[in-house]
Each structure stands twice: as structure tokens, then as C-alpha cells.
Specification:
Residues 1-6 and 12-75 have low confidence and may be disordered. With 234 residues, the protein is an alpha+beta fold. It has a single domain, classed as Mog1/PsbP, alpha/beta/alpha sandwich (Protein Transport Mog1p, Chain A, 3-Layer(aba) Sandwich). The chain is globular. A hairpin with a 5-residue loop joins β1 (80-84) and β2 (90-95). A seven-stranded antiparallel sheet has the order 3-4-5-9-8-7-6. The chain has helices spanning 3-17, 133-149, 204-221, 226-233; strands at residues 80-84, 90-95, 99-102, 108-113, 118-126, 153-162, 168-176, 179-189, 194-203, 223-224. The protein is built from four helices and ten strands.
């Protein structure tokens, strides 16, 4: 397997692993850990609406990604389906033709498209007390360093900001393995204690059209059950 392919497959695991950074979440002995350990990406359910008895799915051979920049040549009318986390922690709408997989041994998903040049990862943790702005920035900065070290990164132009909803976001552009890429990493904590970490890697050539077609509908559709996540952390 080519090094660039291995880096792309490992990216979702790096993103998910950072969800618990800086927290002291307790985990059930009998429950799947909220912070994943390195493993092969798992196969998505046959349908994103299909509930599985065990959220840690059996390993399967993932699709082979490439880093060749795609182009949009025809008008897109994406169809969305709802992915429901089997234990009721969250639901989110994802494009029907994207490859969506449960994160191994973790709460969250990885969803890829355009031959894995678009990578969206969403992961969760829970903490009773509030994350400080400093810890949130550390989570994002450490994740950024892990991502950039996994590729040949050049022309890094990223900056952080906090919005009115108290979400910390690092965003900008970077050239990854020669491909101009828009990178966005966001961490936030809900009033109920859920820590939500999401990351987007999208070829910059697609970003303007990508936002209204995919990014905005996906982000708006996210529904979180804080109580279900809290029970997993106890």
C-alpha cells in the first residue's frame, strides 16, 4: 500500500483519538471506550439507518483512497440519509453515496467521498465540568499537528477563532501531498457535557460549492443525546 494511502486511512483515527484529549472521562469496563485505539477502519452498515447490536463493527477492507483533486462537472442534487448511532448517542444526515463508517471502539463516524479526497470525521466524549478555552485550543492544535505530520504539508495558512456559540474553530488552507486543501477542525461542548470534535478535509477547488451542498446541511442535521453519552462515560 502506498504511503499516501496509509496516511489517508489513518487520518480518521487521529481525529477521533483527539476527542478525549484534556479530559478525565471515566469508561465502563463493559462498554466500548469513547476514545479509540489505532485499528483498521471498519465497514459502514449496509444502510446508515440500520441499527447494529454492537457499535464496534467487524473490520473490513476499506476503499482505496487517492489524493488526486476531483472536479465538479455536473450539477449536484445530493440525497441525504440519516445515520443513527446504535446506542442513541447521536444522529446526523449524510449523503447517501458517501462511504460512512462507525469509528472503531469509539463514538463517532468517518465519512469519505470523491475517492477519499473529502474526509469528514465526527467524534464524541463526555465530561461533567466545562472545558476551558485553553484546553479546547490545545485539543485542536494537537490534532492539527497530527494531521499535518501525516502528510507532506506545505503552504500552511490556518488560524483559530471562537464564535458566539463558544465553539473553537481552526480553519484555513494547506497543501497536502501536493493537493490544495481546506482544513477545518472544530471543538465544542454542549450544555449537557458532550464534547464534540469534527474535522473536514476538502480540496480547496471544491470548497465554495461544497459548503451549501454538503457542509451546511450535514452540520445543521446533527442531534446529540447528552444523557445517552453520559451513561457510556460512567
Amino acid at each position: 500500500m502506498k504511503p499516501s494511502i496509509k496516511r489517508a486511512l489513518a487520518l480518521a483515527l487521529l481525529l477521533a483519538a483527539m476527542a478525549g484529549c484534556g479530559s478525565d472521562v471515566r469508561q465502563n469496563q463493559g462498554a466500548a471506550p469513547l476514545i479509540p485505539s489505532p485499528a483498521t477502519l471498519t465497514q459502514a452498515p449496509a444502510s446508515p439507518t440500520q441499527a447494529a447490536g454492537d457499535p464496534t463493527l467487524a473490520p473490513a477492507t476499506p476503499a482505496v483512497p487517492t489524493l488526486a483533486p476531483p472536479t465538479l462537472t455536473v450539477p449536484l442534487t445530493p440525497t441525504f440519509v440519516t445515520y443513527r448511532e446504535p446506542r442513541g448517542v447521536f444522529s446526523i444526515d449524510v449523503p447517501a453515496n458517501w462511504k460512512t463508517s462507525a469509528l472503531p471502539s469509539a463514538v463517532g463516524i468517518n465519512s469519505v467521498a470523491y475517492n477519499a479526497t473529502v474526509i469528514f470525521t465526527l467524534s464524541f466524549n463526555w465530561r461533567a465540568d466545562r472545558l476551558s478555552p485553553t484546553i479546547e485550543a490545545q485539543i485542536v492544535e494537537e490534532l492539527k499537528s497530527n494531521i499535518l505530520s501525516s502528510y507532506l504539508a506545505q503552504d500552511v495558512q490556518l488560524s483559530g477563532s471562537r464564535d458566539q456559540q463558544d465553539r473553537y474553530t481552526l480553519s484555513g488552507t494547506v497543501r497536502l501531498d501536493g493537493t490544495p486543501t481546506t482544513l477545518e477542525i472544530r471543538v465544542e461542548q454542549t450544555p449537557g457535557g458532550s464534547i464534540v470534535l469534527q474535522s473536514w478535509l476538502v480540496p480547496t477547488v471544491l470548497w465554495a460549492e461544497f459548503q451549501p451542498l454538503f457542509y451546511q446541511p450535514i452540520v445543521r442535521s446533527l442531534v446529540i443525546d447528552d444523557e445517552a453519552l453520559r451513561k457510556l462515560a460512567e
